[in-house]
């Protein structure tokens, strides 16, 4: 199972297995972003990205043992979302 995350400048598929990491750094679940504007979520995205970049090892224990859902995948998604939110603040996230 996975999420399809679509912004204005990117589309990415990411496994549901990242949920534990995502939920540790962002106050809304990824599915709750669906329909919200990039502007509404920019601060959450930036804060979550800072947490992961400042201490990636602190989230390794949340990675599943099967290797599907790594900290780096969440970091990469948040980076793309942050860039997209700066460039296109009125865009609405599509999460399916």
Describe the secondary-structure layout.
Layout: E1 2-6, E2 11-15, H1 19-25, H2 38-54, H3 71-87, E3 94-95
Antiparallel strand pairs: 1-2, 1-3
Helix pairs in contact: 2-3
Q: Would you kindly provide a written description of the structure presented here, covering whatever features stand out?
A:
There is one protein chain. With 96 residues, the protein is α+β, with helices and mostly antiparallel strands. It has one domain. The protein is 43% helix and 12% strand. It is built from 3 helices and 3 strands, in the order E-E-H-H-H-E. The chain has helices at residues 19-25, 38-54, 71-87; strands at residues 2-6, 11-15, 94-95. It has a 3-stranded antiparallel sheet with strand order 2-1-3, with helices on one face. A hairpin with a 4-residue loop joins strand 1 (2-6) and strand 2 (11-15). It is globular, with a radius of gyration of 12 Å. The termini are close together. The relative contact order is 0.29.
């Amino acid at each position: 199972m996975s999420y399809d995350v679509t912004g204005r400048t990117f589309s990415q598929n990411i496994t549901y297995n990242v949920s534990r990491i995502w939920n540790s750094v962002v106050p809304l679940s990824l599915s709750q972003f669906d329909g919200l504007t990039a502007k509404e979520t920019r601060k959450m995205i930036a804060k979550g990205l800072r947490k992961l970049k400042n201490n990636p090892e602190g989230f390794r224990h949340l990675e599943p043992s099967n290797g599907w859902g790594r900290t780096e995948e969440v970091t990469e998604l948040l980076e793309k979302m942050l860039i997209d939110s700066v460039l296109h603040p009125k865009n609405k996230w599509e999460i399916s």
